[in-house]
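Dear Dr. H.,

I hope your travels went smoothly. While you were away I took the liberty of generating a structure for the chain from your last submission, since the lab meeting agenda had it listed for discussion. I wanted you to have the full record in hand beforehand rather than looking at slides cold. The sequence, exactly as received, is reproduced here:
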Amino acid sequence: MSVKLRLDQVGMTFPTPNGAFTALAPVTLSISPGRFVSLIGPSGCGKSTIFNIVAGLLEPTSGRVLIDGADATGTIGRVGYMLQKDLLLPWRTVLDNVILGMEIQGVPLRQARERALPLLHRYGLSGFEYLYPNALSGGMRQRAALLRTLLFDTDVILLDEPFGALDAQTKLQMQEWLLGLWADFGKTVVFVTHDIEEAIYLSDEVHVMATRPGRIIESMPVPIARPRERGATLTPEFMAIKERCLALLMSGHGSALGEAA
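The corresponding predicted structure, in token form, is as follows:
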């Protein structure tokens, strides 16, 4: 099976007044094209460090990041990266926020708008195209931010707790929306969340991390057929994965759940 994204013994150590601090022990992880993979773990386990390294924002102290087999370590622009905050520009309309990545890549403004407009209609933003972000709900803002990330036109998408600030009902709706978007676009998604059920429901694989130092302690496939329905969260297979994740997270490898990454 081919590999889209590979972390090859990627580690990160920071100097401090008290000596070197290992934020991330050497991590090796291979993700196949089109897979949806989640990272879960306590605060300080290195999830955000991994994302910053993959995005080229942080140079690892050891190891390499490979995309399609080519060394992409320290290279910006090879992946789409969305944080929990939508970071929509308040002076731009929804449409012009969504096309920002295409503009940065040099796509002419008219062409970018023509490409994005049908997607806004298809993915639940019809009627909001020419509004400004302050007129949108949290869920609508996240839809716009996710479309902007996808239209950056990279094969790998990093999503760092995109639904963490949403209410429970909106969060469930956004999970369904994201799965539809992922199925249509066929991107390789790496997803960070503190919500174990969210990680299992969305993912093909769940990787559990621990801290001191940050590392992956177990990787679990999710053998639940797609497309998934909410009833999948009540199946024995789902519950078994959830119980295993909880056992690992509560076993003393890291700090309590619910803290920020």
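Two observations you may find useful: Residues 1-78+156-261 form a domain with the Rossmann fold fold (CATH 3.40.50.300). The two ends are 31 Å apart (CA to CA).

With kind regards,
E. W.
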